[in-house]
Amino acid sequence: MSSNTYPSVSDLTLEEKASLTSGADAWHLQGIESKGIPGYMITDGPHGLRKSLASSTGETDLNDSVPATCFPPAAGLSSSWNPELIHKVGEAMAEECIQEKVAVILGPGVNIKRNPLGGRCFEYWSEDPYLAGHEAVGIVAGVQSKGVGTSLKHFAANNQETDRLRVSANISQRALREIYLPAFEHIVKTAQPWTIMCSYNRINGMHSAQNRWLLTDVLRNEWGFKGIVMSDWGADHDRVASLNAGLNLEMPPSYTDDQIVYAARDGRIQPEQLDRMAQGMIDLVNKTRAAMSIEDYRFDVDAHDEVAHQAAIESMVLLKNSDAILPVAKNAKIAVIGEFARTPRYQGGGSSHITPTKMTSFLDTLAARGVDAKFAPGFTLDLEPADRTLEAEAVETAKGADVVLMFLGLPEAAESEGFDRETLDIPAKQIELLEAVAAENKNIVVVLSNGSVVSVAPWAANAKGILESWLLGQAGGPALADVIFGKVSPSGKLAQTVPMDINDDPSMINWPGEEGHVDYGEGVFVGYRYYDTYGKTVDYPFGYGLSYATFEVSGVKAEKTGANTARVIATVTNTSDVDAAETVQVYVAPGKAAVARPRHELKGFRKVFLKGGESVEVSFDLDERAFAYWSEKFDDWHVEAGGYGIEVGTSSRDIAGVATVTLDGDGKAEPLTEWSTFGEWSCDPVGSKVVDAVRAAGERGELPKLPDNDMMRMFLSSMPINSMPMLMSEGGKKITAFMLAEYAGLTK
Asked: Which of 47, 552, 568, 694 has its CA 20 to 30 A from that of 285?
């Protein structure tokens, strides 16, 4: 067989089929050269290529990797609310993969930020599944547009680092469907990632790698996924069970291909299942052949750095700007304090740690642009006690400055893959320094560096300006200078709520679990869904972010476009003379519902760039899913009939206008039985006719009259009809029999 032949699984021996279902080493697929199947490389992402220098030999090294563009991690990029920009980031990542002969880059990670203490929050997109899915899809589509594969991860419910290799995430079906699966679902249906990586953890007691309901029933049969599923590194604990569940590829290999061969021979694996899993691997290889055949490709380092630069600009969120302290005038006397200004924390720790092609700090940028500024490090980037000499030097540096730019945040030792944070606070020595500087100079702008939210309320009074810069990647220095000095206006919006106190978060009562499990007791009330529903005070709400410009959202209108669909329009106007961007956000607020639902949920957004004084009309089409909740009763999405509010604004708590639509509902109704309550009978389209018949028969004297006082009606409403004799003795028994007979007649 020639090397140009693309084989099918029917061309392979049993042993060859088995070999395709595990890697050759930690970073390579297991090829079959004699059959024309190469062993392509796969390697880490997700915010740039992390190809270990040791990967050619199959080794793992988290520190030394080939130079690649380091884009802002998802913590920052998610705050851009700009899918088009994110698509460009994906395209650039793919080009670097082509140069390095990497067939699949592992990412993006779209797990939900259930709790802001999660150690890997820097790598995930949002507390909101709609935002996470509609942003991260840009990475998948962008990368794959160049002929390189992605690996959407970690499927599913990998929401903490504590005990991540074995913890059971105990989650209701409704919470899974509404919170923890939708980002994956949207990306699968929209962009068809070539691979999906299953998570380490168990879900309701079963390891993800062995969960047939997850990997086959939902992912493939329900969502239509066409690619392959691989394990996270070390997440496969039973190759036979995993392959039967729908796992195509074990990574890294356990060198147990013989187990698959034996299982196929003795019937524990059906031939057709092994064929499906192996054919998936062949299909993956064939998708990547064209890109992997390109020789001597070299990506444009400067062009990619510029993409990273733009991404960094749009990642920043301006939280506070009292007295218009930002932007800083170019002739201002500037003091820069904080080691982060000289030694930026530009990415998170762990498997995504990239060696950047360039790195320019904020201080380096000031020097390159001829900006005169005094600098003092103020503290060290570790968790050691404060250095009073450094503190005193910083306070002295701040004296007499027009503006003090204080770079504060979390050192790498405070958050990384592998462990969860213990507090939302930034190190105490940094707060002490801020207080000492503020005692000498009130004109302070705090620039934050962190991968997940930090407490702001305890120290915010000491700062006139707060710029949340997250982790900005390799071009963070120039991007910060552009924003701070007003070359561009900040346009980022929070992708997660900044709470007043970590104990306000509803997941804390079950965080991080105990005795090998963690109960997701908050259900669907994650992030702003909880804070907004229950009126909890937060520091900064989901979707919030200031600009140097001012905007007005007006003319909010909604119209019904189908039985359970709608269109909403609004006008956004830049009411200033500053060219800038605003993100219009659409939330759906259900009316009276049969289940507990969040006050509102994000169902649309659009970032618009407007010149000073410019207006534009924006429209959003809301499909049936925008109004639905997952009904465990129907085991399906369910839209109730009735009124829904459609809110348009600039954050979850800055709503400019509300329109209402009345929907027909999807008509789903559960058959009524003797165990259905009288209240359920009364609300059902058919059951209500039976209740009317009971009342009419009572008036005619054919049946006992139903109780007609508030207390008895309350009891009756919540009571299964087979319990009516408890209230009405023999008469209740007659009514129950009558209702069941009438219902049977109406539903023949």
From this structure: 47
pLDDT in tens, 349-397: 888 889 999 999 999 999 999 999 999 999 999 889 999 999 999 999 9
This prediction's pTM = 0.95
DSSP symbol at 427: P
Per-position b or e across 555-583, b if 16+ CB within 10 A of its CB: ebebeeeeebbbbbebbbbbebebbbbbb
Q: In what order do the strands lie in the sheet with 565-574?
A: 551-562, 565-574, 615-622
513, 336 in Cβ contact below 8 A? no
| 60: pLDDT strictly greater than 70 | no
Among residues 44, 128, 163, 232, the one annotated as catalytic is 232
Contact 95, 145 (CB under 8 A): no
61 is catalytic: no
- Looking at domain 308-539, its CATH superfamily turns out to be Glycoside hydrolase family 3 C-terminal domain (3.40.50.1700)
Residues of CATH 3.20.20.300 domain(s) within the chain?
9-292
Q: Strands of 611-748 (E only): list them.
A: 615-622, 629-631, 636-638, 642-651, 654-663
User: Superfamily for 551-663?
Assistant: Immunoglobulins (2.60.40.10)
**How many residues appear in the chain?**
748
Instruction: Report the CATH architecture of 9-292.
Output: Alpha-Beta Barrel (3.20)
CB-facing half-sphere around the CA of 632: CA atoms within 13 A: 10
